Amino acid sequence: MGALRIVITIAFILICVALVVLVLMQEGKSAGLGSISGAAETYWGKNKGRSMEGLLVKLTKWLAVLFMVIAVILNLNVF
Questions:
Q1: Eight-class DSSP state of 27
Q2: Residue 16 · residue 66 · CB < 8 Å
Q3: Please, are residues 31 and 40 in contact by the beta-carbon 8 Å criterion?
Q4: What letter would DSSP give residue 6?
Q5: Range list of H helices, 26-51
Q6: Are 10 and 75 in contact (CB under 8 A)?
Q7: The overall pTM is greater than 0.85
């Protein structure tokens, strides 16, 4: 069981690093003064889910969920 704990810990560390990199790659959420006049509702704003930024957001969400699940598993001291 000790080897399984080591493998899960290594996977946890890799997920932590990937999560940090993904968060740093994302753009800020502040739209600036353009959001006052409604300039944020452009083609880019409507199709953001299909862009690279949308992919980064989805990957960040999934890695955050995986991070939490593995953290709970490692904290149970089952191994």
A1: P
A2: no
A3: yes
A4: H
A5: 43-46
A6: no
A7: no
The pLDDT tens digits for 28-55 are 776 555 555 555 555 555 565 578 888 9
Residue 16, classified by CB atoms within 10 Å of its CB into exposed (0-12), middle (13-18) or buried (19+), is: middle
Closest CA to 22 of 46, 48, 51, 58: 58
| d(C-alpha 77, C-alpha 36), whole Å | 51
Q: What share of the chain has pLDDT > 70, as a percent?
A: 71
As a whole number of angstroms, the distance between CA 34 and CA 30 comes to: 10
Angle 66-64-6 (CA atoms, 0-180°, nearest 5)?
A: 45
Residue 13 · residue 6 · CB < 8 Å: no
Q: Tell me the C-alpha distance between 69 and 14, whole Å.
A: 14
- Dihedral of CA 75/57/55/28: which sign? negative
